[in-house]
Amino acid sequence: MDFVSTRSGTRADVAAALTRGLAPDGGLYVPSSLPRFEPGDFDGLESLTAIGRRLLAPFFDGSPLATGLDAVCAETFVFPIPLLRLEAVAEPVSVLELFHGPTAAFKDVGARFLAASLQRLEGEPGGQDGGGARDESADPLNGRGPAADPGGRPLTILVATSGDTGGAVAAAFHERPGIEVVVLFPLGRVSPRQQHQLTCWGGNVASFGVRGSFDDCQRMVKQAFTDPELGGRWRFSSANSINVGRLLPQSVYYASASLEHWRASGATTSFVVPTGNLGNGLACVLARAMGLPIGDIVFATNANRTLPDYLATGVYEARDSIATLASAMDVGDPSNLERLRKLFGEADALGDQVTAMSVSDREIERRIAQDAGRLDRVWCPHSATAMHVYDTLPIAVRSDRHWAVVATAHPAKFDTVVEPLIESLGGSAVGRHLEPPPALAALLERPARYVEIEPTLDAFAAALAARRAADG
Ligand SMILES: *Cc1c(COP(=O)(O)O)cnc(C)c1O
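That is the input. Now the predicted structure with pyridoxal-5'-phosphate docked in place:
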């Protein structure tokens, strides 16, 4: 299947869309058409991997990745994504927990899928251990794509991160042959646990702590991409959230969760999705457009209200982002809105498809404290926005259909925000200390290392050169 740019409509196959990330005209790639499924098309398919293969096959049809899609899905969906009924609530509501991956946030899904795909497009066999470990590699090519760079330069993935993305991307690419990752993060502006996840890798992952802001990090990455001298020595790519290789696999967990409920009851599931750049939310809309049994879709934003205001007024106004407790959603100009508008139309038409509500920091705090007691469940600040929006829906709407509140990160990842809020509960059944889940705990045990640099392209280029010299 072809992908088209949201701007000029130029086309690319899935392999080119994955490798480029952004279209040459600065637009985002969207599928030229969407496959249509019925729930029955997934009969007999239980696992995320099996459902993912069926759902995503049409997008990879005819591409060099088609034969590798099975293995790519198998390498992506290695952790559970459970749909758990909230028994303490009288109305039919569940939580879709997306945080059981290596870095305890939903971005692990997209990052792993993109890494597994790019590795094959680079001509390397599958697996994170250098390949050869997979049983189903009877096909000698094992889904290999076109040969890598004729000059033999490895692909270097540049990631500027304000927190969650860099860790997920580093974890997903760590120990993949033929690909390097360089993470730039703003020193002192990410949480201690986030910083550890950005700097504990080594091997093919380099971490640069920039004496500046996230915007400085982003600017340095953009400059590196367009600098002719660096471009001659390095082959850069990006793994930011607008890559279709991160978007498509996120539809799989919406398919799987909605099918699970459909099979048990014959009814749809409606979702409340915490939203920043709208990648996760768009994946839900795509799953419904492909025929999965999904009812309403409601987006929960933090105090950054660009999206709810656009849907309410029809006027799009990008803003500077405001810092909130749900920091991974601090987005004033959500990039994936360009895709939603291209696929489903402007505010009027879009309003028939989705709704959006903004949640304040005060409401996030109250929600976390209240539900720790009421539901014996601790939300991360992002997931708390979704639960809050669910709770403000009219009671009739909450009673007559099944809802799933999407939990995007484990609360222990944001312990500095969450722990003080639940401490005040005193004798509650919920402990004061948030235990990190096993995968996150294992990461926190690893030694951390990073190189500190000034926020300039020269300093960045020098650090890259030093790293290559050290690699010999
Ligand atoms: C990135 C992130 C979000 C926002 O997801 P988008 O796809 O940008 O809307 C929400 N919650 C957490 C924990 C995140 O890391």
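The pocket of pyridoxal-5'-phosphate is lined by residues 105, 107, 164, 241, 274-281, 328-329, 382, 408-409 (CB under 6 Å).
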